[in-house]
Design goal:
Blueprint: H1 2-7, H2 30-33, H3 36-94, H4 97-106
């Protein structure tokens, strides 16, 4: 059939011609076209790149997590400072002479007589 096609004149041939078949290079097989050492090096570099990117992503996630923890700890520290200030003010008001005088009056306490007062020294005298 191909011979009949070739024998026709240019005017008798249709506008479209069948595609010629692809020819393989003589003497080289597909295994010879590929350099397997280069493929392995490429795959190794690709694997290392993916692992590196995963490591960077993991480190970035840890940084974000530590940032949240730091924020929470700072908030707790601020809250504790405010609470400590409130407790100090409460302690000072409870220890004030005015408050103690009012408390003694409510409990009907009297001032001690001079004979009832005992002085305790912090250091023994020699």
């Amino acid at each position: 059939m191909a011979e009949a096609y070739r024998e026709r004149s240019a005017e008798q041939r249709p506008d479209f011609a069948p595609r010629p078949k692809k020819r393989r290079r003589a003497g080289r097989s597909p295994e010879e076209w590929v350099d397997w050492r280069s493929v392995l090096v490429f795959l190794g570099l690709l694997t290392l790149t993916v692992l590196y990117l995963l490591l960077l992503t993991n480190v970035r996630a840890e940084v974000v997590q530590l940032g949240y923890e730091l924020h929470d700890l700072q908030y707790k520290a601020d809250t504790l400072e405010v609470e400590a200030g409130n407790l100090n003010r409460t302690r000072q008001s409870l220890r004030s002479p005015q408050h103690l005088t009012e408390l003694a009056a409510d409990l009907r306490l009297a001032k001690p007589k001079p004979a009832q007062v005992v002085v305790i020294h912090d250091r023994p005298t020699h």
